[in-house]
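Reviewers asked in the last cycle whether our approach scales beyond single polypeptides. To address this, we selected a multi-component target totalling 436 residues and predicted its structure end to end. The input consisted of the following lines:
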Amino acid sequence: MNEIIHPTEKTKLKRIPKRGNFERETIYKILDEAFVCHVGFVANNQPFVIPTSFARIDDRLVIHGSAASRMMRSLSEEIDVCVTVTLVDGLVLARSAFHHSMNYRSVVVFGKAKVVSEEQEKYEALKAFTEHIVPDRWAEIRPPTKNELKGTTVLSLALTEASAKIRTGNPVDDEEDYNLDVWAGVLPVHLTTGAPVADDRLKSGISVPPNILNYSRK
Amino acid sequence: MNEIIHPTEKTKLKRIPKRGNFERETIYKILDEAFVCHVGFVANNQPFVIPTSFARIDDRLVIHGSAASRMMRSLSEEIDVCVTVTLVDGLVLARSAFHHSMNYRSVVVFGKAKVVSEEQEKYEALKAFTEHIVPDRWAEIRPPTKNELKGTTVLSLALTEASAKIRTGNPVDDEEDYNLDVWAGVLPVHLTTGAPVADDRLKSGISVPPNILNYSRK
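The resulting structure, written as structure tokens, was:
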């Protein structure tokens, strides 16, 4: 599994190469933890960056949306796209302003997305979106109808030109600053979930299922 | 303060207009809560989406980086940029796969960034970056030297073409699905901080300051 994705001119890091990571396993783990990706594309010579939910199916990233949306219409024409996923892990608090930083894990994917038109493949993508948000949710809910599948555009982007960028650990201060009377270190940051809030119209007698009650992202 | 930013062809929402928000106060609040923005630009006909830290100074968004980075070099030429900030607030768990969604608040800004070259203005931007991460941190740390200011490129983007998009509340299911025996509702999601981790080389006798010990994002 721990295959290396070949770096390209676009994905290789020129300035701080030690932060770059091209292992499939590392890239997949970051994608699987994130809720949202940021999709970059060009329409009428203007760059757009649109946040959207997504899922990973094996070595592809899938997104979905209404066929009427500008993003889905533009991407359906198989134009160049850049999809970026970012997780913030910590605030890196140095002794100098200059060396303040963040711990993070990000993934950038380049390519051209393809429309998924085959009904069974679309069904599997909708399943992946739901399971990406809440594992084991699919078995509990009403699956999509043929009409719902028709009204949804699904796009698939191969994870062939992709890379991760990761910063971890302590601040790195200038040697002479270590002696300053300044607290320095890392304030860890993570996403967490609160108590589930039942829908106002929830049918009586239905309790919160364990995969939602004991939800954990990692 | 609660001024409305004029919607444009790029920022107005065509499909679900009720999710759009053009109030300066709402847009600023989202920007001030987020740690990371995603910067979209085009270089060699290829869209790039790069995550980076940022700050807001009044009606401008500022980012910074090494003058050697592709992003800073490209944006310094005052090309079109799209900067997007997204906060995930909840997983919206409907009775059908089709109506699963997320609660979120996002901001999209369009424009051309300008290089901040005046030394005092750069100094104020570096202060804003630090204060954006940890309020009141600036007074505790070593401020930037003239050389550090020289080595940093700061870009400023006016918040003149900007909009927010917000989803809140319960899932919206098809009427006939409300009778299904499926738990439905919202699982709230938020960023939280853990206990501060002191740097390995922290000088002895320095305790964690209250703004870090009692850190809260909102």
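Chain A touches chain B through 94 residues (CB under 8 Å). We regard this as preliminary and will revisit it once experimental data from Aim 1 are available.
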